[in-house]
Each structure stands twice: as structure tokens, then as C-alpha cells.
Amino acid sequence: MDPKLDKWLRWFDVIKAEIQDLVVAKHTFHEVQGMIRANPKLHKHSSFYDHFTRTYVSHVVIGLRRQIKRDDQSISITRLFGEMIETPHVLPRRWYTDKYKGSVVEQFADSDFDKFANPGSPHIDPKLVESDLLRLQAATKRCEDFADKRVAHRDKRDPKEIPTYNEVDGCVDLLDELYVRYLLLFHQSRMDTLLPTWQYDWKEIFRVPWIEEEI
Questions:
Q1: Are 136 and 68 in contact (CB under 8 A)?
Q2: How far apart are CA 181 and CA 89, in angstroms?
Q3: DSSP labels, 37-80
């Protein structure tokens, strides 16, 4: 195996943890918001709601920022895509199809690889990776600017535009989508989303009073 491909595989596992954290944060935020909406007793002003919302937005835009930075010390999906575009020969068809040999899905090896390459091409198509990179950069542009100027530090310059909640959520969804897409390339595996299936009821804590009334 090419040492660079081995590095990409290790990066991909790091990226998984980073993106999954954002996917879980988004899910948790909206589930709690839904509980608040469904309970009229909670429909009152509270500084906790402001804190909860600001914390979610700050956490997510910083997490997005980590994935769209491409300096030499970063491990990010943007840097991974950049290296794949520059050196597509590092991920060859032969390495990919060898992973299918002896499996019940061996006949799908080439057609699966063709999702990332031209039919018959010996390696991935950098233009397909570049297309995904451009989608990500376009979607996260306002989040990156806001993170740089207001979350990572306080810039004298104002952000050009403040991202909406829908845009922030959309960026998380896109990262989830891209991870799932490239999981097929790097690990020859499929999944629908990085959102886990909990093995316990994480909402159980909300079914008991948080403050016990003194008698």
C-alpha cells in the first residue's frame, strides 16, 4: 500500500469522529428544542435557552471550521480532498477491487469504484473529488467567515453575513453525506448516516425534576 493512502485511511477515521460529533450535536439540539416546544410549561423566557443555543452554534461552526481549513498541520476533509485531487494515482482501482475478492459482493467491485472514477480508469477521478470539495466550500463559506471573526476570536471586522440556523444545519448534513459517500471508497462499506443508534434512553434525564422542591 502507498504510504500516502495509509495516511488517508488514518485521517478518514479521525474525520469520522469529528463529523459524527457534529451530527450528534445537531440531533441533540433539535430533539431538546422539540421537547421544549411540546411542553407549554416551558414556554417562558430563560437565559438557559440563550446559552443552550449559543453553545450549539459555537460548537458546530468551530467544528465546521476544523473541517474546511487546509493548513499543513490540519487533519480535515478539505485537506484530504485536496491531496486526493493532487495525487489521484494513490488510490488505484486494483487496490480497491482486491478488497472485494472472495466476498459475496465481489461482482460489484468495479461498479462501486466507478462511482469515484471513469469506467476502466486505473485510479479515482480528481474532478469528481473536486466537485465535492467545491460543494463543501460553497456551503460552508459563511460559517467559516463567522467562525473566524466571531467564534475563534473577536475580529475588528464584522462577518460579511451571519449564517442562519438552517445553513449551519445544512453544513452538518453535507459533511454527513460526504463521509457516507467516501466510506464506500475508503472502507468498501455502506451506511446512511453517522447518527448512531443509542443503546440507552438518553432522554431519560428529562423525565425527572431537575430541582427537587423542598417540603
A1: yes
A2: 19
A3: HH-GGG-S--HHHHHHHHHHHHHHHHHHHHHH---TT---HHHH
Q: How far apart are CA 167 and CA 19, in angstroms?
A: 16
How high is the pLDDT of residue 71? Answer: 80
- pLDDT tens profile 26-37: 999 999 999 999
Give 33-38 contacts, CB < 8 A, sequence gap 24+: 35/203, 35/206
Owner of C-alpha cell 471573526? 149
Q: How far is CA 157 from the centre of its chain?
A: 28
What percentage of the chain reaches a pLDDT higher than 90?
69
Q: Sign (positive/negative) of CA torsion 16, 17, 19, 20? A: positive
Distance of CA 140 to the CA centre of its chain: 12
- Asked whether the beta carbons of 64 and 175 are under 8 A apart, the reply is yes
Residue 92 phi, psi dihedral angles, 5° rounding: -85, 160
pTM across the whole model: 0.90
The mean of the pLDDT values for the chain is 90
104-155 pLDDT, tens digit per residue, is 999 999 999 999 999 989 999 999 999 999 999 988 887 666 665 566 556 5
Query: Per-residue pLDDT tens for 110-123?
Result: 999 999 999 989 99
Set of cell numbers at residue 207: 423525565
Please identify which residue in the block is written with the cell numbers 462511482.
115
Element (H, E) at 123: none
